[in-house]
Amino acid sequence: MTQFINRKEDIVQEAIDGLIATSGGRLVRLDGYPHIRVVMRAGWDRSRVALVSGGGSGHEPAHAGFVGEGMLTAAVCGDVFASPSVDAVLAGIMAVTGEAGCLLIVKNYTGDRLNYGLAAERARAFGLKVEMVIVDDDIALPDLPQARGVAGTLFVHKIAGALAEQGAPLHEVAAAAARVVTGTHSIGMSLDTCTVPGAPREERIAPGKAELGLGIHGEAGVEQVAYTDARSAMHMVAEKLATFTAPDVRHVALLNNLGGASVLEMAVLAHELVQSPLAGRLSHVVGPAAMMTSLDMRGFSVSLFPADAADLAALHRAVPLAAWPGMAEIAPVGTVELPDGLRPIRPLASDHGATRAFLTQCCEILIAAETDLNALDAKTGDGDTGSTLASAARALIAAMDRLPLSDHTQLYRAIGQELSETMGGSSGVLLAIFFAAAGDAASSGQSMGEALEAGLARMQEIGGARPGDRTMIDALHPALAALPQGLAAAAQAAREGADKTAAMERARAGRAAYINIEQLRGHVDPGAEAVARLFEALSDR
Amino acid sequence: MTQFINRKEDIVQEAIDGLIATSGGRLVRLDGYPHIRVVMRAGWDRSRVALVSGGGSGHEPAHAGFVGEGMLTAAVCGDVFASPSVDAVLAGIMAVTGEAGCLLIVKNYTGDRLNYGLAAERARAFGLKVEMVIVDDDIALPDLPQARGVAGTLFVHKIAGALAEQGAPLHEVAAAAARVVTGTHSIGMSLDTCTVPGAPREERIAPGKAELGLGIHGEAGVEQVAYTDARSAMHMVAEKLATFTAPDVRHVALLNNLGGASVLEMAVLAHELVQSPLAGRLSHVVGPAAMMTSLDMRGFSVSLFPADAADLAALHRAVPLAAWPGMAEIAPVGTVELPDGLRPIRPLASDHGATRAFLTQCCEILIAAETDLNALDAKTGDGDTGSTLASAARALIAAMDRLPLSDHTQLYRAIGQELSETMGGSSGVLLAIFFAAAGDAASSGQSMGEALEAGLARMQEIGGARPGDRTMIDALHPALAALPQGLAAAAQAAREGADKTAAMERARAGRAAYINIEQLRGHVDPGAEAVARLFEALSDR
Q1: Considering only CB atoms, which chain B residues are within 8 Å of A317?
Q2: Which of A331, A405, B61, B115 would disulfide-bridge A355, Cβ 3.0–4.6 Å?
């Protein structure tokens, strides 16, 4: 699969420069390209303990995205999935470490341990105070004495970061970090592998399978399991984690997107997490968000940490980093009652002979035109314009006894309401909007002509169609414009408008917009035809 | 491709409940499942103008993720890529609208226009003040009179949201929203389609191709273009946008992840954006972040808006929403000079006959063992342990004249430095760490035995191997423990330790950890053997 990258060799430094350029001046980097790729806080004064992390790239936003006030002081970035060199780590340490010293936060991979470890030795030889914690939160491989470091690392960054920002001494920051490492347990699950730049994607996971207990470098999971849905997936993850948590202790859960799950899926997984067997052991959640990714892997991980009050305060502390999603207390879903009276109160039914006759006639005209309009629509659409209008007309006749026929102001709205409930599709909604807006205008004292014009204007605004777009408006617009001159003039204008649609070579609204010119040419738009027939019939009355 | 969902019909409401449960009590929803899915601010008092947006789902975090202080008051969520119903929108409007009124922010799709439009009419019939803006920022289809609404919608949410939060009246909020719509232009590009839940993924985009001018509902782009790299991709996008921007006006760029691009790729794209032909017209950037997605589409979009000072203030205003990444001023990448003296100053060379002879002898012992150790390693590893150690020994002999032979404290560190520069792989780094730590201990006044023990301890800490893990430590650890009783005792202890490794059925560190028991059984670990031979030869001297 193609990716949004340039040369493979340049990915890491281009990504770093992209991050820094869009950091609003919060970040700088060491001038050591291409070998030394160290992102650090701008204006760092070395007065407090420095936190340096990093490792292989491909886990973005980790780690450079977490450099900033209240979290990391610097991140040393290796190639994708490869540890940075000793020299790069040493440069990072020396660039940010003052008398207060420095804590290295290192994920438990041999390369990272060794390179950070030797860099720490060298830095100590320069007289710098350097401590190091190894994060090994992954529970996927219970038999392996050296568990991997995965997304639980974020807990260390945040809690140690808050302490360091507040001026705690190195031994205290390091002890807190070590305590967080001990308390943190993580496991991940994935439905797909990741795309390593420059390498073909490995198709290792068959449809219907998921990998449980994977790492963040594209390595295979500990077991392939049958995948059915998000609920059972989270259940498996929760069961693995449950053995590492005491039932009576509340934990913070960090729900991490491994990169390729959609935001929608992550929200579903968040729902499953708070419904899972773990739910009773959870008090807060960080995420869901992509924090420690494995490039574009469609997977997630859950990390748990039993935070005490001080830890919670540290996790809550706001940081100016878009990559840190913040922590929230898990709460039941609050609901608010539906507003009363979503259905408008129907105006009192009333009779009015002339209005009843007029409306009935209009409906009958449309019912009579059903077959013709369907035939016309069949040439340029799906052949149902006649039926749609006739059905609505029949429904309106059936509703006649409950309409406020003697209150013309209310009548428009009532007709709109009936139409919106009985007519399907866009045309039903548009006619409902037409009558609702006309009713608004009428109720504010405008004349019938003005009210109908107001309805037309609103219908155009909402529907987006204008005269010339090959819709019913091509007949309705000239008809209403001519109405002051009488029904006959309106009918003539409607007919002329409808006939013109046969020459319109492009439909610009409605479904006919997808039909090509040859199919349209010579055929009158069925909606415009309906309007013309209505005015003609009324005029002939 | 499988996704982290449960039943297709439940996705939207499960995702909403996941969002609300992890919102820390900031959000609630209307009690109208399954038909009415409205997310709203908790504790909203209707004292100010309400902002209601929404539309089809599948664009997460839009829109529910932007409900909160300073942005939306409520979001009405339809099915994936389908407009919510009139009733749902009306319920949303009525739930949040007080005397100050309500602004509907609607993306320009027929279904949304109609359903929000009719809901607005109905709400007005209830006497509510409701205004509506239609966002049509997409420039992909210049011939289409009804441009689509895409990620530029976020500018409207944020600027109108800031005004409403500050108590601006409806007409002012609506006018600002309309002005933002007019000024905003967006276009997207994708390398892959999205996976609509329950539908097979359409494989429409061939490798080496990209779609330019796509929408956010999985619809095909306006053109398929040849795709080479991120730079040319951003160039094409920038050229399309350039025709809609004046060269002398500075714009805010919103860099949106359509859902499936990795965070790493988005950072590369950010780098390309600020290097693109548009760069001179940009002052600020929002993102990169997934704000208006098309499920898991591997694509991005850029939206531009010429913000004035008031707009910038509104965009800058902090909101408690993880989905809003904030806005940053675009700045050149700041660099900091590399720290001085990353290379430790070499201690002054000095001679010392006995030390030179001892060191040389050690080296010669290892050189003599090269073939044997390689043969041993070939049985359980890749057969190079002997060569690795012999090369390092030869290099150390060659370096003898520049070592501080008469200053034993400095000598440890100098040996560590030489080894780290000449030996490849983990073992080189580990030995360097061993000697560096021993040097530290020696310089703080500890005896040779104590210094070597300190080196061993640090090597174990960093490398993670312990006695019994089938490494050189199995010989080195007992040897150093016995050293106070003399070299002969140390040699015997080393030999016993090395021989024991042949019975260890599981290697727990180093490359041999990946070898199965049958291959290991009966073979002494080559690293342990090297240590044993070294002590035996020294003892026989």
Answers
A1: none
A2: A405
Q: Do residues A314 and A459 share a domain?
A: no
Whether chain A has a CB inside 8 Å of the CB on B440: the answer is yes
A449 falls within a domain: yes
C-alpha distance from residue A89 to each of A35, A95, B430, B486, B492 (Å): 11, 10, 16, 39, 40
- How far does A31 lie from chain B, in Å, by closest CA? 5
Peptide bond into A185 cis (omega under 30): no
Angle CA B313–A318–B335, to nearest 5: 70
- How far is the CA of B165 from the CAs of B123, B170, B291, B311, B322, in angstroms? 22, 11, 21, 14, 18
Nearest to B501 by CA among B539, B537, B473: B473
Same domain, A319 and A272: yes
**Exposed/middle/buried for residue A98 (C-beta within 10 Å: 0-12, 13-18, 19+):** middle
CATH code of the domain covering residue B400: 1.25.40.340
Cα distance between residue A384 and residue A40, in whole Å = 65
pLDDT single digits (tens) A54-75: 999 999 999 999 999 999 999 9
> Chain A within 8 Å of B112 (Cβ-Cβ)?
no
- A3 domain-assigned: no
Per-residue pLDDT of A357-412, as tens digits, reads 999 999 999 999 999 998 888 877 777 888 888 888 998 999 999 999 999 888 99
Average pLDDT over residues B81-86: 89
| A264 and A380 co-located in one domain | no
CB distance B456 to B473 below 8 Å: yes
Residues in B 222-241 with any Cβ partner in A closer than 8 A? 227, 229-231, 233
Are A344 and B433 within 8 A, CB to CB? no
- Interface pTM, i.e. ipTM: 0.86
Answer yes or no: is A337 within a domain: no
Question: Are the Cβ atoms of A436 and B40 closer than 8 angstroms?
Answer: no
Task: Give the separation between CA A227 and CA A240, rounded to whole angstroms.
Answer: 16
Is A416's CB within 8 Å of B121's CB?
yes
Active-site annotation holds for B284: no
Same domain, residue pair B213 and B289: yes
Taking only the tens place, the pLDDT of each residue in B176-219 is 999 999 999 999 999 998 888 877 777 788 889 999 998 898 87
- Asked if residue A308 and residue A392 are part of one domain, the reply reads no
Q: Taking CB atoms and an 8 Å cutoff, what residues of chain A touch B36?
A: 338
**Where is pLDDT greater, at A5 or B110?**
A5
Between A62 and B8, name the one with better pLDDT: A62
Q: How confident is the model at residue B440 (pLDDT cuts 50, 70, 90)?
A: confident
Q: Of the listed A59, A217, A251, A284, which one is catalytic?
A: A217
Residue A494 lies in domain: 353-540
pLDDT band per the 50, 70, 90 thresholds, residue A343: low
- Angle of helix A86-96 relative to helix A110-125, nearest 10 degrees? 50
Residues A248, A117, single domain; the answer is: yes
| CATH code assigned at B262 | 3.40.50.10440
B207 contacts A3 by C-beta, under 8 angstroms: no
Tokens coding A110: 């041999």
